[in-house]
Amino acid sequence: MRRLHINGKNNTKERMDMNSFELIPTEENLIHTLNKDLLKRNKDLVRFYDLILAQEGASSIAIDGRWGSGKTFFVKQSMLLINAKNPMSDMDDEKKASIVYALPFPKKAEDVPENYDVAVYYDAWENDNDTDPVLSLVYEIIKQLGINYAFDDNSNEFKLAGSVLEALTGRNINGIIENLKSENPLTKINEEKDLHENIKKFFTELLVERGNRLVVFIDELDRCKPSYAVQLLERIKHYLCDDRITFVFSVNLGELQHTIKHYYGNTFDACRYLDRFFDMRISLPPADKTAFYREMGLDSSYGLEKISRKVIDTYNMELREATRFYRQVKTAAYEPTHDSGKWDFAFSDGKGKQLLLMYITPILVGLKIVNISLYNDFVNGKNSKPLMDIYKESDLGDWLCSKLLNRNEAYEEIEGKTLVTVEQKLQSLYEAIFVTEYTNGVYHTMIGDYEFDSNSKRFVRSIESMLSVYADYEL
Which of 131, 171, 297, 437 is the most interior residue, by most CB within 10 Å? Predict the structure, then answer.
């Protein structure tokens, strides 16, 4: 935990460190987010828990969401919840209580029995260099559930997983694994059947006195190499189709379909192919960002925060993008736009720098995250659309544009004044910063209260780079 600085003073309200609160799913962050319901997904977690408990027989569920939308947070919180509700889990009672009590479970009659499941998490992307996804997954289950078998982390994974399975089932799994790696297809087919049976026995042993069902959360499958993603899906379908197992895949289905097509060809029907593996597809509910913004400090009435929220909303940033974006904006421009005692807003050479810091920097930072091509066009004077998107039809734009009027201009018909539009003034502002060449006796441009010159573009790009004199790396 750290303290944020607001208005140049230590804020006594503690917030989560922005560097660690980029939706990094540490256990501390997962529980903190649950306790405060920062994403307003606690009700969704309860419903999903009930859905998992209702599963009968082998089942597979896909949770679909865009990259950065909080899928990993959701599935890891679901895993915590499942294990917290299981009285046989080794999670300490205080932690169990902090998780369960934070969630809006309906009251149930005491005589109503509840099934209890066991949950594990598998990061497919982290393991996509492994030789065999099934044995890699078995190894991960063993590690996470603390099954007490001696093994060497540096040993060959096939032999490691084989030794563990052999210890659990009393069968010669190492010999089966060697046959799986052989070139003799008939031997492989025969021994695959034995391996299938031994893995089923492994799960039988695993669930004795631990719960009724094993829930395996598989994350980041859409980021894997195409060959590994396909192999993982198909081998799970073949070996781990067990009535006591529910697989939950956390994926961006659109990206996963691209991955499948990359493996089988662009004409391959990836959507129907995935139907073979997913019994149910669930869209991750959108997060309510209000409390999340408040935790980040984005609920401030300062202009920089208002503009940052507008950029986040305009470009439909997911949670991960929003936290990364605001951290960069804070680093680049927080101090000179919040601490008027330390930085004089008038500056020694005009108010133009104030406008660049407050109104242009967030756009540049946001564009670099969501669309680098549009960023390049914007800073090179080729496309003013981002400025229009943020300010043309907004309260922020109304205030800004009121300051861009020259004395002889107005946005409505007034005798003696030239009628101009908001779009025209925003275009003039854009051109003064990014288009105008200050040569042949043209040294500056005045737009309302603000002066711009040949240094304006260089100045704002320096600010956006987070390497200017105004940058603060301690926030």
Answer: 297
Residue 462 has pLDDT above 60, yes or no: yes
Question: The tokens of 90 are what?
Answer: 């080794």
State pLDDT tens for residues 6-57. 233 333 333 334 444 466 888 988 998 899 898 899 999 999 999 999 998 8
Give the pair of three-digit tokens for residue 33.
Answer: 């987010």
Distances (CA, A) of 303 to 89, 140, 155, 396, 398: 49, 48, 57, 8, 13
pLDDT band at 113 (very low <50, low <70, confident <90, very high): low
Angle formed by the axes of helices 456-464 and 361-370, nearest 10°? 60
Q: What is the pLDDT of residue 198?
A: 66
For residue 463, the surrounding DSSP H or E stretch is helix 456-464
367 contacts 375 by C-beta, under 8 angstroms: yes
β-strand partners of 213: 117
Expressed in percent and rounded to 5, the helix, strand and coil fractions of the chain are 50, 10, 40
Those residues whose C-beta lies under 8 Å from the C-beta of residue 440, and which sit 6 or more positions away, are none
3-state secondary structure of 328: helix
pLDDT band at 352 (very low <50, low <70, confident <90, very high): confident
DSSP state letter for 359 = I
How many Cα atoms within 13 Å fall on the side-chain side of residue 379? 23
262 secondary structure, DSSP code: H
Convert the pLDDT of each residue in 204-260 to its tens digit: 777 766 778 889 999 999 888 898 899 899 888 877 777 888 999 999 999 999 999
Cα–Cα nearest to 245, from 62, 88, 119: 119
Q: Can you tell me the mean pLDDT for 122-151?
A: 74
For residues 265 and 10, give the distance between their C-alpha atoms in angstroms, rounded to a whole number.
57
Confidence grade of residue 161 (pLDDT, cut at 50, 70, 90)? low
CA distance 139 to 160: 8
Q: How far apart, in whole angstroms, are the C-alpha atoms of residue 69 and residue 64?
A: 10
**pLDDT confidence of residue 7:** 32
Q: What are phi and psi of 310, to 5 degrees?
A: -65, -40
Structure tokens at 354: 């104030």
Closest CA to 353 of 370, 376, 337, 334: 337
Quickly count helices (H) and strands (E) in the chain. Answer: 21, 11
Q: Specify the DSSP element, H or E, that contains 28.
A: helix 27-36
What residues contact residue 254 under an 8 Å CB cut-off, 6+ apart? none
